[in-house]
Design brief:
Elements: E1 5-10, H1 20-30, H2 33-36, E2 42-46, H3 60-72, E3 76-80, H4 93-102, H5 107-110, E4 125-129, E5 137-141, H6 142-145, E6 149-155, E7 157-159, E8 163-165, H7 167-172, H8 178-185, E9 191-192, H9 202-206, E10 212-215, E11 218-221, H10 231-235, E12 241-242, H11 249-264, E13 271-277, E14 299-303, H12 306-321, H13 325-329, H14 336-344, E15 352-356
Parallel strand pairs: 1-15, 2-3, 2-6, 6-13
Antiparallel strand pairs: 1-14, 4-5, 7-8, 9-12, 10-11, 13-14
Helix pairs in contact: 1-3, 8-11, 11-14
């Protein structure tokens, strides 16, 4: 481990004249937001708007305070996320915007416009060379890749492939375009369930590589011609195109971390990470529910180092719960893989020094 990175923590106590929103602002200033956001910087506030029915995501009032701190530093903030790989309430920009507003992220509440980073159906991305151990290049949502600066706002929770989902997951999976998400989750092209396919041809019309044909009134995808864009998953009106979620957890975590490296490319000194260790749900916020928390609330943390931040969050959760709730909830997943690999490829260090406000 290298020189420890500083992680800032504020607990959830509050009193008259010092509410949680004020403490969030103080946390950002202590963590150096003024040094990481330059005047006029178009600043991506990378967050998760929550699937419809989920209530564990970071509340919009906190996002507004983060937006205000970015603006005070001279930045021009916009809220952003990328469309999902699966067909849900955030799989295209129209539904994604509708879900975000339904969940409270309207301009009047959050104080910043919403820009979905990878286009109408997840087809707008920038290829970034990372020369990783698994991925040579990764596909990052265009508007995230082209932003001048970034504040990554994360809800810390359990995750079925990573053990937990923290800042690294928010960067790696959350900033990837649909093709990048498919690369992380699967080694094969999507497949059509013939029992539900009507042979309508919508997927054929939208396939940019001509990999899909309708044979005997059923769509068929050629694995040899498929380029992995995953557009067919979203445009299928019957929802019969599926991903084979066949990647083992350690490999998913390594791919995820290498996509995080790509998402940070060019913005390493202009990114700040803020993580809310509250309502620690057992699964990702991509589900339309969140279930009861698996650990007590801890607080809000910030750092310029996503690896140190994730390590600190995991340590605090385990300490508060008196056990490792991530291994208990996902017993086959070793969540340390993502941290070790991130440290190995230079994203940060697992060694940290905690400063409490």
């Amino acid at each position: 481990m290298g020189t420890p990175s500083t992680v800032w923590l504020t607990d959830l106590s509050a009193r008259p004249g010092k509410n949680l929103l004020d403490k969030t602002g103080a946390l950002l200033r202590a963590a150096g937001i003024g040094q990481r956001i330059s005047p006029g910087a178009l600043t991506a506030v990378k967050l998760h708007f929550g699937e419809k029915g989920n209530t564990a995501f970071v509340r919009p009032v906190f996002i507004r305070r983060i937006v205000e701190e970015i603006a005070a530093a001279g930045g021009k903030p916009f809220l952003t996320d990328t469309n999902t790989l699966y067909a849900g309430s955030r799989s295209n920009t129209v539904d994604h915007l509708s879900t975000a507003i339904t969940n409270g992220f309207a301009y009047a509440v959050a104080g910043a416009p919403i820009v979905i980073a990878d286009g109408l159906r997840g087809e707008s991305f920038v290829r970034v060379q990372v020369n990783g151990q698994v991925c040579q290049e990764v596909s990052i949502g265009s508007e995230i890749a082209r932003a001048d600066a970034m504040v990554v706002v994360t809800h810390f929770k359990g995750h079925e492939l990573g053990g937990f989902g923290g800042a690294l997951k928010n960067l790696g999976m959350g900033c990837a375009s649909r093709s990048g998400k498919l690369m992380q989750h699967s080694t094969v092209s999507p497949a059509v369930d013939p029992s539900g396919c009507s042979g309508c041809g919508a997927c054929v019309a939208h396939c940019p590589s001509g990999a899909i044909r309708v044979l005997d009134a059923k769509a068929v995808i050629s694995a040899e011609e498929c380029i992995g864009c995953a557009d067919c998953i979203v445009v299928c009106p019957e929802g019969t195109v599926h991903v084979d979620w066949n990647e083992a957890s350690p490999l998913v975590q390594r791919k995820m971390v290498e996509h995080a490296l790509g998402a940070l490319s060019g913005k390493e000194s202009r990114t700040l990470f803020v993580t809310f260790v509250t309502q620690v749900s057992p699964m990702c916020d991509c589900y339309g529910h969140n279930d009861r928390p698996i650990a007590p609330d801890v607080g809000i943390l910030a750092s310029a180092d996503p690896v140190a931040l994730d390590q600190a969050c995991a340590d605090l959760v385990i300490r508060a719960a008196g056990k490792d709730p991530f291994r208990e909830t996902h017993p086959t997943v070793d969540w340390t893989v993502q941290l070790s690999h991130a440290e190995e490829i230079g994203l940060g260090t697992r060694s940290y020094r905690m400063e409490t406000l």
